[in-house]
Amino acid sequence: MGRAYAVREKKIKEQGAARGKLYTSFAKEIYLVAKRGTPDIEANIELKRLVDKAKHMEVPNDIITRAIDKAKGNNEEDYKEIYYEGFGPGASTFVIKTLTDNVNRTVGEVRAAFNKAHKSLGVQNSVTYNYDHLSVIGIKSDKYDELFESLLDAGIEIEDLEQEEDMLVVYAKATDYSKVKDVIENMFGDISYEIDEIGYYPKEKITLDGDDAIEYEKLYNNLEKIEDVSEIYTNVEK
């Protein structure tokens, strides 16, 4: 499979201008997870893992704390996680993750970005059938055989397990994300995740050139500017 995971973390750490959007996305996700479960990190393993991920991405503690405190109150905000699929220049395709409290606003802004590029949104599964929905988790370790056996013993269907220099990268179904982490944490205890992603990864990538490449970049940048857009997955090799 070879380094199919997103390079979003590296990109964001290198581009200070993108940090504000990263913080906003994490604040929304933390609020959602705390609200639907319990706003107690020690009692909510999903929340604990999300907070650990936010800290790894250098999200300030005060943003994390405010999101959790907000979930403890009687706040009426109701964020939803919604995916949109679209067709871009050339043979490019997009899967767009949004976190929104106003679906009409968000779909309008996403559609407007495609309209501006003279392209269109697709219906559900018009694009994602050409993508794998995966959890991709990487840790610093050389215990390939031990981890492989432990994942199999837990009944996890491994898409791939790679040893990349001093790092092990597990590729599994998105629905097995928590199970994979359970196995890793049972083996290694309190470990830091080098890669911690759930996303859509294209089964085949394409390259664009000329006008298609220019229009693709414009569309991508316009989507990235939308506040409610938290992730963009495409089949274009960069």
**Could you give the order of the helices and strands?**
HHHHEEHEEHEEHEHE
Output the CATH class name of the largest domain: Alpha Beta
Q: Give the overall shape.
A: globular
Q: Considering DSSP H and I runs of 4 or more, what fraction of the residues is helical?
A: 40-55%
Number of domains: 3
Mean pLDDT, as a whole number? 89
Provide the low-confidence segments as ranges: 1-14
- Strand order within the widest sheet? 3-1-2-8
Query: How many β-strands, per DSSP?
Result: 8
CATH superfamily of the largest domain: YebC, transcriptional regulation domain
Radius of gyration from CA coordinates:
19 Å
Q: Report the portion of residues in β strands.
A: 15-25%
Give the terminus-to-terminus CA distance. Answer: 17 Å
Largest sheet: 4 strands, antiparallel
Number of helix segments?
8
What features would you describe in this structure?
Helices cover 42% and strands 25% of the residues. The protein starts with 7 loop residues before the first helix and ends with a strand. The protein has helices at residues 8-14, 19-36, 45-56, 61-72, 103-116, 144-153, 177-188, 210-224; strands at residues 80-87, 93-100, 120-122, 131-140, 158-164, 167-173, 193-202, 229-234. The protein is of the alpha+beta class. Helix 2 packs antiparallel against helix 3 (45-56) and helix 2 (19-36) packs parallel to helix 4 (61-72). The chain is built from 8 helices and 8 strands.
Structure characteristics:
Alpha-Beta Plaits; Arc Repressor Mutant, subunit A; 8 helices; 238 residues; 42% helix; alpha+beta
